[in-house]
Amino acid sequence: MYSGVARALVLLGVGAFLAVSYDRFSSDSKYVFITLGALIAYIYFVSFITGESVSSRTIPLIIFLCNVLFFLYYKYNEKELKELKSILWIALILNTTFNITTLIGYNTKANVSRLLAKNFDGAEVYARQGIGGFGFVYTTLLILPFDFTILKNKELRLIYKVIVIAHIITSIYMILSSGYTLAVIGILIIVAVSLIFSNKAGSADIFKRFVLIAIVCAVLFWQWGEIKNGLESISEGTMYEDKVHDLLYGVDDNDEGSFGVREERYQRSINSFLEHPLFGSGNFVSVGKHSFLLDTYGQYGFFVGTAFVIIITMSARYYYKKKNVAKKLSILELILPLILLTLNSMVFAFGIVLFILYPIVVYNYCEEKKIEESKRNYSGLQRREIHREMS
Question: Is residue 304 one of the residues assigned to a domain?
């Protein structure tokens, strides 16, 4: 919203990267280039036909898609990811810094992140003070699982452990203070996936953990009345008070509240898709404007909507299949973006997290990956020693 120059610099940087590195992409990647270009061209074509302006919405989307190009490059030039570790640490330090400035902003003005998203009077002043809006809150949520993966690395130096722990503390505190219920639920999803999908857990262990969580859910349902009273008491006077009220009484009595407003917007996008399933309505005014994925299906139809789902999950699916040492992290980086982009608008910073930072973390800081590599290297040495003795 306030960074037109920065966005232009990003696009210029991507153009320079492609110009220098194009011949180092695989032939398969070049088909993806064509697909991305076709998607953008189709969006502008629909805009031309309908007469709607899409520039303000497509520039962040184009920046998001540009990050896919970096993923495709490093997918086939993986060893170069070792040289990018500094980018990850700079990102964590900057994110921690802005967590702190955002928390300071919360003390100055309550709900400031939500107000920034609505572009209220004076929003630019708060943004220049380093206070993040909803996009920053959800981007921080996506980065959070990286911290726990990095901390498992036994070779990590003390200074880096301090950076990671500081990021975890400030991130969780900032998210809990933000007033975004979905972000808080995201933290619970991270905890649940971490408990269920341990890297060393077999299918029996995973089943036991599912059963344990099911029992906990059953107990919560059984004691719902007392829990409801407790939640009302805890949230009274906080920025979550209205949302907790909407959640509790929306569930019990179907009252109108913020959930009712969201539901109406989601339903509008779903209805638009059901009326025009293949190619969508073509009009942005016909969708709810509160869900990137539902809005895309409603406006552009099944093929474009599904293409974006495939693109968003591209890196997580790749590492889940090819890098079994990162399964838990891959599950989180698959689930969280889909949930967030189904229930909220596009955040172009998600592309940096999913297609640049995520591969850096997997390649450099997956403990099990290093162990497997050590085993392979050791086996190779053994074979060479045996061959030398025999000869």
Answer: no
Q: How many domains does the chain have?
A: 2
Question: What pLDDT tens digit does each residue of the chain (391 aa) get?
Answer: 445 666 667 667 767 766 667 667 777 777 888 888 888 888 888 888 877 776 667 777 787 888 888 888 888 888 888 888 999 999 999 999 999 988 888 777 666 666 666 655 566 666 666 677 788 889 999 999 998 888 888 788 899 999 999 999 999 888 888 877 778 788 888 877 776 666 555 555 556 566 666 666 665 555 556 666 666 666 666 655 555 555 555 444 334 445 556 778 888 888 888 998 898 888 887 888 888 899 889 989 999 999 999 999 999 998 888 755 567 888 888 889 998 888 888 777 888 899 999 999 998 887 555 545 555 555 555 555 555 554 5
Both 323 and 344 in a single domain?
yes
Q: Please give the model's pTM, rounded to 2 decimal places.
A: 0.77
For residue 351, give the amino acid letter.
G
Of 76, 107, 135, which marks where a domain is finished?
76
Does any domain span residue 338?
Answer: yes
